[in-house]
Amino acid sequence: MEAKPTVVVVPAKLDLEKEICTFLVQLSKKVLSTKERFNVAFSGGSLPSIVASFLADREDVEFSKWHVYFADERCCPLDHPDSNYLLVKAELLDRVKIPSSNVHAINPELVNDPEKAAADYQSVIEKELPLNDQGIPVFDCILLGIGPDGHTCSLFPNYPQVQETKKFVTHILDSPKPPPSRITLTLPVLNSASSVVFVISGSGKTETIDQIFHKPEEKKPASFVNPGPGKLFWLVDKSASAHIDYLAKPVSQYW
Ligand SMILES: O=C1O[C@H](COP(=O)(O)O)[C@@H](O)[C@H](O)[C@H]1O
């Protein structure tokens, strides 16, 4: 890992839910003080429930100006139990007032053709997001999880998607974690975001975090995520944090 991330360790999952809520409330306010919209990408898995837990009850967030995207998505109908969209909908979108036109899901008509679905999603983010000087779409915030194998988004260890340098969204047909067909943001986009936040809970992730932070030879995809100084955050609860406790800042100092 190059530039050092900001690492915040909190006692328990409940505190993690509170912390990511505080983080997003503040970041959204900051972004919306100078821009018309807050562009945020969600991962699936355990993340949406942690993120939405307290956030969905906040009345001081301008959700009408939020635009929601998906850091990765499974190639299935939007009402299928595997869908990351469905998960984010159940946890957050059904509980807050984000206009449906601000929610940028995978095109359900293309889920049987993952390559086309990825190209289509790339055209969506190129149209919706500001581009940096290299023409790469810039998210205000990307919310990430990690799998026990060190994958993030649908970038799996030793899979070619991790090496992608040209496309902003790519597809995978043989994901080692079901379902096999997915689309995913690529590292050039993750590393161009204004902020990237890993939100990690539980002892099942402790050894993975050790590999990501201390064992570059393991080449875990999450270890290649680094948008630059001051832009990378790891919010971790105590049970997941054994190997990075020493990097942690007190909560009050990181924001
Ligand atoms: O398959 C996926 O897994 C990762 C990690 O999920 P978790 O349940 O272990 O938190 C997730 O970040 C990704 O979006 C998802 O598609």
From TrEMBL:
Signal peptide: none annotated. SUPFAM superfamilies: NagB/RpiA/CoA transferase-like. Pathway: Carbohydrate degradation; pentose phosphate pathway; D-ribulose 5-phosphate from D-glucose 6-phosphate (oxidative stage): step 2/3. InterPro entries: 6-phosphogluconolactonase_DevB (IPR005900), 6PGL (IPR039104), Glc/Gal-6P_isomerase (IPR006148), NagB/RpiA_transferase-like (IPR037171). It catalyses: 6-phospho-D-glucono-1,5-lactone + H2O = 6-phospho-D-gluconate + H(+). It is an enzyme of class 3 (hydrolase). Residues 15-234 form the Glucosamine/galactosamine-6-phosphate isomerase domain. Its EC number is 3.1.1.31. One of its GO terms (biological process) is pentose-phosphate shunt. Keywords: Hydrolase. Pfam families: Glucosamine_iso. Belongs to the glucosamine/galactosamine-6-phosphate isomerase family. 6-phosphogluconolactonase subfamily. PANTHER family: 6-PHOSPHOGLUCONOLACTONASE. NCBIfam families: pgl. Hydrolysis of 6-phosphogluconolactone to 6-phosphogluconate. This is 6-phosphogluconolactonase. The lineage of its organism: Eukaryota, Fungi, Fungi incertae sedis, Zoopagomycota, Kickxellomycotina.
